[in-house]
Amino acid sequence: MKLLTTNRLQDGVTLWWGENGWVEDAALAARLDDAEADDLLAEWKPRETEVVAPYLVPLNDADAPVQREHVREFVRANGPTTGPTTSDIARAHHRVEIFQG
Amino acid sequence: MYIYDAFDHAFARDRVREFSDQVRRRLAGEMTEDQFKPLRLMNGLYLQLHAYMYRIAIPYGLLSSRQIRKLAHIARTYDRGFGHFTTRTNMQFHWIKLADAPKILEELSEVEMHSLQTSGNCIRNTTTDQFAAAAKDECEDPRPWAELIRQWSSNHPEFSFLPRKFKIAITAAKKDRAAIRLHDIGLHLTPEGFDVFVGGGMGRTPALAHRIRTGLSGSELLSYLEACLRVYNRYGRRDNSFKARIKILVAALGPDEYKRQVEEEWATLDKSRIDPPQAEIDRIRSFFPAPDLASRPFDAAAHERAKTADPEFARWVKNNLNPHKNDEYVSVTVSLKPIGKTPGDVSHQQMDLLADMADRFGNGELRVTHEQNIVLPHIAKADLYDLYRELDTVELTTANIGKITDIICCPGLDYCSLANARSIPLAQDISNRFADAAYSDKIGDLSIKMSGCINACGHHHNGNIGILGVDKQGVEFYQILLGGRADENAALGQITGKGLSAEDVPAAIERVVQLYLQLRTDESERFIDTLERVGRPTFAEALHEPA
């Protein structure tokens, strides 16, 4: 089984192929059999005004990306694992007026 | 600082028009990604894991208050409210939309900034001493020379497609704060002229640069650099990107033979067509006048009372200040390494406040350091407590400069498409482990530098403790290096053994630190001094013993 993923041309946002098209939520990604995945990849590779460099992510028996793709795809799916940004921290702790703008 | 003339403004406007049209054509489908990618990279725009990343050039780390306000505006308007300072003293925005990139470039041009040569196999941002024009130990201000190099190397037709990227650093101080021997070319300006070091670097094959020339006159600097680059451009390897940096060529030829070829090439050059006349050097120097520092009597008794009343201020004074040429002033380093947070990140609110502080207390000037902090170079001692209290309102008073939590760290696999492992979360874990201020102060000066891949953006080769993230069949591991340093006694760290898991690294570092505290002769012997005296193997053993 495989996942099909890419980045959207306009904003670079990570996309996953879902049941009915591209979705931003990796939890909604479709588990594709190999033939279907290859067909979809061939269909989307030339559609360069919509997506950039789509590719397939092989899955293991536990339905997770295999080996070296695992951490990378986890981060792509879930966003940075760095916790709150400095902006979030600052907003939580300091004067309201300096956060306007 | 340097001010754009009509030529510079026209150049920037042309680039905005050109890049806007390139983006328009890409979005309209008139260009493929393969055609567009080299063009966007020439303008500092990368596509990373979650979005486009825009790398903004900050020449030799120098920022005006007006410029950092613009960066705050860009963070607020086009990104997620924050930016990230890099070890090349540039700024990266990690959440950019392609369609917004031309507008951002246009906004940058309004404050004499751009993103050119922040990517690609060209001469990248020249870096220098963050305390330039303020440090007691420098012989002259190195920034006019850095600006001269910037102008010479911008869009240089011969050096826009080198075998690989090329980095230059320059210092004019006795103490090397610019890591010159870790650069493709390092320049040390002394009263006798420039010492030229060539062939240093990090990455897959780390090397310290070799001195090939001493006492080079500033009036001949550019032609000599041109000769160095020409030999590299002619003979540097283009068949293997892993062996394409100048350090490989210098190692293959040997420093003496490389120098011979440079000197031979230099002799053939028409220097009058390359080296600027003295009037041009003087013109560039005129943009960097000595700061106009009013006499500000310092009430030492009041300062001591403030330190007694506010121990956190006392720690900040102890750890974050650098002596200034003018004894009534100091240089302040503002830490961007709050405990447990992302090294080098800065919010738009913090950038706006830094601009205000620069205007109010510091001649409107800021510097970005390659250690990913900010320097206010000219602060009257009389203003220190007022400045501290303002910085404290936006969590910019972490008192850890040069200490174990002042960690250099690349964005790693949380953002970067080249990375093999995450680096920020591990930096956060290490920072949290050594969060206790008294413990950190007891340890003293100790640099930890971490990269998420072999490209070494986090300078792991020259950290006293270096950490390199690697991927082993889908699991992140971290190789630990010991003994690196980036100062005037530069040394490369050595890998100590097999990689550790992220969970094991903080405890392993603590074992090394505990061993250092046991072995040091007294508090004045720094970690690196003890390690060099005792030897790496003793510390490597502690690093890898069972927890």
Write a brief caption for the model.
The complex is a heterodimer of chains A (101) and B (547). Chain A has 101 residues and is α+β, with helices and mostly antiparallel strands.
Helix and strand topology:
The complex is a heterodimer of chains A (101) and B (547).
Chain A: E1 2-8, E2 14-17, E3 22-23, H1 34-44, E4 51-58, H2 69-78, H3 86-93
Chain B: H1 6-27, H2 33-42, E1 45-47, E2 52-56, E3 62-64, H3 65-78, E4 82-85, E5 91-96, H4 101-110, E6 127-128, H5 143-153, E7 168-171, E8 185-190, E9 193-198, E10 210-216, H6 221-235, H7 246-253, H8 255-268, H9 278-285, H10 300-309, H11 311-320, E11 321-323, E12 329-334, E13 345-347, H12 348-361, E14 365-368, E15 374-380, H13 384-392, E16 408-409, H14 424-433, H15 437-443, E17 448-451, E18 465-472, E19 475-482, E20 494-495, E21 500-501, H16 505-519, H17 527-534, H18 536-544
Parallel strand pairs in B: 6-7, 7-8, 16-17, 17-18
Antiparallel strand pairs in B: 1-2, 2-5, 3-14, 4-5, 4-13, 8-9, 9-10, 11-12, 12-15, 14-15, 18-19, 19-20, 19-21
Helix pairs in contact in B: 1-2, 1-4, 3-12, 6-8, 7-8, 10-11, 14-16, 16-17, 16-18
